[in-house]
């Protein structure tokens, strides 16, 4: 009889759905392409996404959970860790070349304040890398996983998803404060069997079908007032 395997303390702190479906891991090529010299990950858990970046960057993880910060410091001592809220980032304005917010905004009651704070700490020319579930398509993927018994025996949505975005609503919010460079989707059903779906992931029709929305946005001006 096999002995039980102890949990990996450095494993990404994703929810049960993500661990079983394998859909949450963020595309590393996007991080490599867009991450600048000084990078902040807001709500980055134990720091997994920052650890995937090539060396030579200053990397800071801002996380509200003390337990995740403790684990992160033990697993990735090369990273910087600081406790803070996505609504009130404990950094000076224009401190970062890149801010990552990966699967965070859906958990926030006030997503606009989160984007305002990100825009504040970004330098001119700095970029936001953001990912969030794409509603209502996300619920269709929940149904598929339910049929496959891939994660849990319920069709209920994640109760911590308090801000559910369509891709166009998310674009509208972010474009009030930053200039969108790229808006795309991922985990499109059958995309590897239907080449059209993969080729047109930046188009509105296909973005509507994807499970996740990814937006890259740039700070192109200093707004007179963040409202």
Question: Gist?
Answer:
By secondary structure, the protein is an alpha/beta fold. It has a single domain (about 15-220), classed as 3-Layer(aba) Sandwich (Rossmann fold), CATH 3.40.50.150. The chain has 9 helices and 7 strands; from the N terminus they run H-H-E-H-E-H-E-E-H-E-H-H-E-H-H-E.
Could you characterize what this model shows?
The chain is an alpha/beta fold and 227 residues long. The protein contains nine helices and seven strands; from the N terminus they run H-H-E-H-E-H-E-E-H-E-H-H-E-H-H-E. The chain has a seven-stranded mixed beta sheet with strand order 3-2-1-4-5-7-6, with helices on both faces. The longest helix is centred in the middle third of the chain and has 12 residues, at 137-148.
Q: What's the layout of helices and strands?
A:
Layout: H1 16-21, H2 28-34, E1 38-42, H3 48-51, E2 58-63, H4 66-75, E3 80-83, E4 96-102, H5 111-121, E5 122-133, H6 137-148, H7 167-174, E6 179-186, H8 195-199, H9 204-209, E7 212-218
Parallel strand pairs: 1-2, 1-4, 2-3, 4-5
Antiparallel strand pairs: 5-7, 6-7
């Amino acid at each position: 009889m096999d002995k039980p395997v102890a949990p990996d303390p450095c494993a990404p702190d994703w929810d049960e759905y993500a661990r079983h479906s394998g859909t949450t891991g963020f595309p590393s090529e996007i991080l490599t392409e867009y991450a600048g010299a000084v990078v902040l990950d807001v709500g980055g858990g134990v720091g997994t996404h920052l650890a995937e970046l090539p060396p030579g960057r200053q990397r800071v993880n801002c996380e509200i959970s003390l337990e995740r910060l403790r684990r992160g410091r033990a697993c990735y001592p090369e990273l910087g860790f600081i406790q803070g809220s996505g609504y009130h980032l404990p950094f000076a304005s224009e401190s970062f070349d890149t801010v990552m917010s990966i699967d965070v905004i859906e958990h926030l009651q006030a997503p606009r304040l989160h984007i305002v704070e990100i825009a504040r700490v970004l330098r001119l020319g700095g970029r936001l890398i953001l990912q969030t579930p794409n509603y209502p398509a996300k619920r269709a993927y929940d149904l598929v996983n339910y049929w496959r018994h891939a994660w849990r025996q319920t069709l209920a949505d994640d109760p911590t998803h308090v801000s559910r975005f369509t891709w166009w609503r998310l674009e509208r919010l972010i474009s009030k404060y930053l200039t969108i460079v790229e808006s795309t989707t991922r985990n499109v059903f059958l995309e590897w069997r239907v080449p059209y779906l993969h080729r047109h992931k930046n188009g509105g029709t296909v973005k509507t079908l994807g499970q996740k929305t990814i937006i890259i946005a740039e700070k192109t001006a200093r707004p007179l007032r963040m409202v």
